[in-house]
Amino acid sequence: MTAPQTIPDRNTQLYELIETEQLYPHFQPIVDLRRGELLGYEALIRGPENSELYTPQLLFSTAMECGLTLRLELLCRRLSLEAFARLSLDGKLFLNVSASLLGTPEYRQGLTAEWLKSLDIPLDSIVIEISEQHPFDNYGLTLEAINHYKRMGFKVAVDDLGTGYSGLKLWSELQPDYVKIDRHFIHNVDRDPVKRQFVKSICNIANGVGSKVIVEGVETRSELVTLKELGATIGQGYYLGRPTQNPKMLTNSDEWLPRKRRAGSEKDMAETAAVLVHPAPALSFDDQMGYTAKLFRENPLYDILAVLEDGRPIGTVHRSDLLELFSTQYGRALYENRPVTRILDTRAIIIESDTSLEQVSRLITEQDAVYLHQGLVITKDGHYQGVGNVRDLLKKITELKIRNARYANPLTLLPGNVPINREIDGLLKQTENFRVAYFDINYFKPFNDSYGYVKGDRLIQLLGELLTNNANGDNFTGHIGGDDFVVVFRTADWKERCERILLQFDLVIREFYSPKDLEQGGIWAASRTGESVFYPVLSLSCGVVHPDPYRCISYHEVAELAAQAKKEAKKRDGSYLFVSRRRKQRIN
């Protein structure tokens, strides 16, 4: 069948689909990445499953060819709203809108609001998405569209930010409630430094102008963890949930939310924002500015006070803002009895007490310079604990760096035995699910004797880099000493990572040998007894154990289990991964 014959067939199919309303709304979850909670859904349309017009791309391109774009979009909008109401879905509904259709004579304003009223859907539940991928005209129709929906009371999102100039221009001029970063910049963001810088910059801009960023196309856990570190707070993508007619979140948020540290652990407290807490007084939502001034006078050490609603901080009040207001002529008389919310700063830096100091430092340094001296609010499970300051943060981080440097291995600078043991003991106390992988190079001593200590040291450093690069994220890499390393895995893909490490080691190790030794498959060297013995090309052994935190009391038992697993791995030829079934020490 030729192409000219195919297009009319599609047109006919589209007419029939519209007439019979054979279009099926799908909903993709949009997730709050800070709490692991559902924020809402984006409505996406699909044709019949076995139809040529199943995908929205073909549906709308065909509609444009035959002049049915407005009719198709309005039908999709109505069906999506009806399905949203029928399913009683929670949260917000993000509706895609073609801004250019507002200028057509057939478009009737207020139609969406009428449908919402008839379906008993609150207007503030709807977010209008306007994409810069739509064919906007050159006369400001996109600006008109956003203003139109804002006047009606809808929240507005600019979709596919980053695919063109218009998205950034709209953002700067209209400050939409949400901006969506195009999936192109999200794919492999965990491996692409340019994309990371782009996302980080967008998140910083959003923080400054009061917009919320939604990262689209999140497909892997590693991408999600990286995006959270860059400041992303809302996400959407296959990893979080696919578009379906009966939507649900696919991923368990426990896999990527910050893990709750067990209270009372000395080690945990020393490395989290909990050590920064000063139990400062707080204000309620309806307190007056005169009372606020009194609190500041009675607490001269604090430059900010938190404002709470139901025990949760909603912002801060700055001493400097209050003084500036009262310093004007008649300022105190005019404002003393006004509510404190008049000078409320909703862009306050609010941090959970179990957030690591490293994460706190990263978050603060990404803020505008004006916020670096204004302190931060610290919460526990969302409830107010107190305030902190940057000076204390810098002091604690310096102490941690000195402590870590004291116990780091001098060759690889990786944590040594003391931090390794502390990490394992902490996980046992928290009854966490984790695995310990013990890595050891086979025949390293003869290689070191033959090729020299410089090359041997470089090989150990290379192995440290291999382990660090492959065990990123929530995992912990340590250097016991010599050619012995451990990785404490908390991620579910530990086996794939171990296998990848062994494979990469086998590839890079060949660069350390001369062509002659590679050709013969190894080296001749003196054994411990002085005899000349042939040693094959170096390989890597890995023994993995899965300790039972209810039966292992301390790192001593875990270390013994790991050493036995490594011993079993070294009995095999070549690089080998041995996974032990034992989860506790045998009682003699």
UniProtKB/TrEMBL annotation:
> What SUPFAM superfamilies does the record point to?
CBS-domain pair, EAL domain-like, Nucleotide cyclase
Q: Which residue ranges does the record assign to the CBS domain?
A: 276-334
Would you say which domain of life the source belongs to? Bacteria
Recite the UniProt keywords alphabetically: CBS domain
In the UniProt record, does the keyword Cell cycle occur? Answer: no
Q: Which PROSITE patterns match?
A: CBS (PS51371), EAL (PS50883), GGDEF (PS50887)
Start and end of every EAL domain? 7-257
User: Transferase: is it a keyword of this entry?
Assistant: no
Domain GGDEF per the UniProt entry, residue ranges: 432-582
> What InterPro entries does this protein map onto?
CBS_dom (IPR000644), CBS_dom_sf (IPR046342), Cyclic-di-GMP_PDE-like (IPR050706), EAL_dom (IPR001633), EAL_sf (IPR035919), GGDEF_dom (IPR000160), Nucleotide_cyclase (IPR029787), Rev_trsase/Diguanyl_cyclase (IPR043128)
Q: Spell out the NCBIfam families in the cross-references.
A: GGDEF
Which PANTHER family does UniProt cross-reference here?
Answer: CYCLIC DI-GMP PHOSPHODIESTERASE PDEF (PTHR33121), SIGNALING PROTEIN (PTHR33121:SF76)
Question: What is the official name of this protein in its record?
Answer: EAL domain-containing protein
